[in-house]
Every structure is written in structure tokens, then in C-alpha cells.
Amino acid sequence: QMQLVESGGGLVQPGGSLRLACASSGFILDHYAIGWFRQAPGKEREGVVCITSTDASTYYADSVKGRFTISRDNAKNTVYLQMNSLKPEDSGNYYCAVSLTWGTVVVPTTRCSVLDFASFGQGTQVTVSS
Fold first, then answer.
1. Which residues are CB-neighbours of 17 under 8 A, at least 6 positions away?
2. 55 to 71, 72, 118, 125: CA distances (angstroms)
3. Is 127 helix (H, G, I), strand (E, B) or coil?
4. Of all residues in the chain, what percent are helix, strand and coil, respectively (each to 5)?
5. Quick one: what percent of the chain has pLDDT higher than 70?
6. Read out DSSP for 56-98?
7. Whether the Cβ atoms of residue 101 and residue 127 lie closer than 8 Å to each other
8. Average pLDDT score over the chain
9. What is the pLDDT of residues 78-111, one digit of tens each?
10. Spatial CB neighbours of 42, under 8 Å, sequence gap ≥ 6
């Protein structure tokens, strides 16, 4: 069964850091573009960071630029989201997903949308609060 599993969430004070992980059974993640998305209560799921399968291009939402970094460890078949200088508005459930078309002529890298990704995991909760 092909699935994604997110981990690494938790409760952190404002200004703190977390590193989320997206691991897979069934998907060879370096064959796919990867997206990290988050959803706060009562809000739509939004794209946070997306990266092409070749790592040649990334998209960072304006709200996280300079604070969040996406990376891959292909040997572990895992994608990470390093989150620094966390703010209360970063709170939410964080999901990873895959895409075969993001960053190609089909889907430009000017957006990071749930519409272009699939196979979302169950998510990991991030709470930023003092």
C-alpha cells in the first residue's frame, strides 16, 4: 500500500523550531515532487512549501520564506520540513503529499496547491503557543 506518514509535530513556544518528516511506504519519494501543506481549524488547507522531483525548484509561501526549509534524504526515503522562528499563526495540522506533475509544463512552480497533489498522509499537529 502506497502511503505517506508525517511526524515530528508538537507543542513549541513562539520563536522555537520543529523538524517535520514525511516518510513513505510504497512511494520512492525522489521520483515525485513533494508538497507540505497545513490546515488550521476552520481554514482551508494551504500550500506551505513545494519542491520538484529534481530539487531544481521550490515554492515557499510568503508567510514562511526565510523560516522554513524543505530537504530530502533519499537514502531514508524521507522529506523534511525544518521550521524555525515559529509563530502562533504557523499552528495547524501539517500534511505532505506527492505529485508527478508539479514543476512540469503541466503545473508551474508559481503555485503550491492541494489541487496538484495527492496521497495526503494523516498529518502531524503543530501548535505554537506560550
1. 82, 83, 84, 85, 86
2. 9, 9, 19, 26
3. strand
4. 10, 45, 45
5. 100
6. S-EEE-TTTTTTEEEEEEGGGTEEEEEE-S--GGG-EEEEEEE
7. no
8. 95
9. 999 999 999 999 999 999 999 999 999 989 899 9
10. none
Pairing of strands 10-12, 124-128: parallel
Backbone angles phi, psi at 120, to 5 degrees: -60, 140
Sheet strand arrangement including 92-99:
10-12, 124-128, 92-99, 33-39, 46-51, 58-60
Q: Which amino acid is at 34?
A: I
Cell output for 117: 497533489
Neighbours of 5 (CB within 10 A): 15
Whether the pLDDT of residue 1 is over 80: the answer is no
CB count, 10 Å around CB of 79?
Answer: 27
CA-based nearest residue to 6, from 32, 35, 28: 35
Cell triple for 123: 498529518
